[in-house]
Amino acid sequence: MSDARKDRSEGGAAPAGLRHERDRYVAFAFCGADILIELDSRHMITYAGGATVALTGRPAGGLVGTSVFDLLPPSEQPLLRRLLDRAARGARLEQTGLHVVGSSGHSVPLTIGGYYLPDLGGHYFLALRMQESVSPAVALEAAAHDLESGLLGSGGFSEVGAARLREALSRGTATTFTVLDLNGLNDLRQRLDVESRRELMFTLGNALRESSLGGESAGALGQERYGVLHESNLDVKVLKTRIDRLAADIDPEHRGIDVKAAAVSMGSQGLDGADAARAFVHAVKHYEKSEGDNLSIDSMTEGLSQHMEETVRRIGNARSVIASRAFDVAFQPIVELETRRVHHFEALMRLRDGAGVSPFQFVHFAEEVGMVCEFDIAMCRRVIGWLDEVRKAGKEYVVAVNVSGRSLSSLEFVADLLNLLNKNEWLAGKLFFELTESANISDLARANAIIQKLRKSGFRVCLDDFGAGESAFHYLRALDVDMVKIDGSYVRDSLAVAKDRHFLKSIAGLCNDLEISTIAEMIEQENTIKLLRSCGVRFGQGYLFGRPSLDITSFDARRSSGRAAHAVARAVS
User: Fold this and answer.
1) Which stretches does DSSP call E strand in 184-303?
2) Most exposed residue of 50, 125, 289, 507, measured as fewest CB within 10 angstroms of its CB?
3) First and final CA of the chain: distance in angstroms?
4) Domain locations in the chain?
């Protein structure tokens, strides 16, 4: 309390008795808030108190005389403006999630609530409180709020909801995930004027946020589909009725919309908080992809329950495979196109009988539910163990293990990997890392620093599937690597499509200028080799040179004589 009182600025003198009473009320207010702000009718700050330095980087006195909107990033300002406008029309400003620009320049998540009091000069009285359980980097960095409803997009919703869910389950709070289909919402929006449409979407967003965990665990999954993570004692029928009435009252034709809801308990599966959060994230992605399906209420509820049960089962199976290392490693040759000699191998993860999914499906699922870090470190351990075995048998290979961009962004994974490498110093020069799913890298500068640390320690790094994503060149510019593997779609279609040939030549030319070696995958025809060489591609991989084999020695006859053999390990084909 003493720090908050020191940070306070009253903006003017007052009689001692009045100051004492005011300080008492301010002290009580700080029991439920981190910052108190008073605004005039022009939304200028006339009073500020609390931890303003810690949360905004500015002393309370420095805020007086400035616009409250200066505290927020541009994307948040329309939402606050609508909140204040509604308050001025007599509505209470309910607790709503917003972000302020913190002292470090990052968005700091807060909840804001308060009143507009016309009898006190038409001033606004706001209380802001920090959301301690949500990382400041989460919501707006993951996905911007929708400017009309103020709700998070699916990416931000899954991130924030997962954090809230873990927190709720750790407290023993029963939690439910509800999917709402608002059939006819788009048609209703078309029948409304601009102001009425804004009113509809703002009120809808506020209703969903008010019902959610922490006042922020609600998001848009599509144009007519929304998700809410809430305490299980919430009466969803009441929420549906509220939305029904809202739509009917604002509709000039009084047709309204058809609200359907499906709900599933997030604690009934017996999962811990981490796995329940994974199941929730997967469910959000599933229902975002299926938005627009015309389903009945019963089929929605049954479908959500079945999807959650299937997700829980798959999480358990994936965890069992990873923990027991119930997978094998198959090797596929990569050749130098000029000599046709095997230059290195790519090792592919192969699930054992009974897994029920393909390697690609397994790794893709691990990516979606946030288990890929666990799998990647298990694959690293498996390949390093194999390298140690063949080394003791008098053979040498260089193995490059697939590492997801999500794993490279994980502090825990990087620490485990570096610790593993430090314990096996003999690996230097014998291990590659192939970076996949670059789009999942949250901090490119930090990722590049880790890559350079690996390279300086003798571990080469290859950027996989180059050209597959929209920001491929952005990643190449930000990440200094040794090799680039060109996405197979360019190679597959290069013979028939001139545009793909030009892209292929441009990619190879750029990499050669940067002194980065290139690998072309999916080579299946003999005449593709001549084209690739003319484009400047040095290495190739595909069924033309050999299919994956569990026995790497079957390729030894084709290895380059007098040259150290290289083996590149990948998680999936």
Assistant:
1) 218-220, 225-231, 258-265
2) 289
3) 58
4) 2-130, 139-316, 325-569
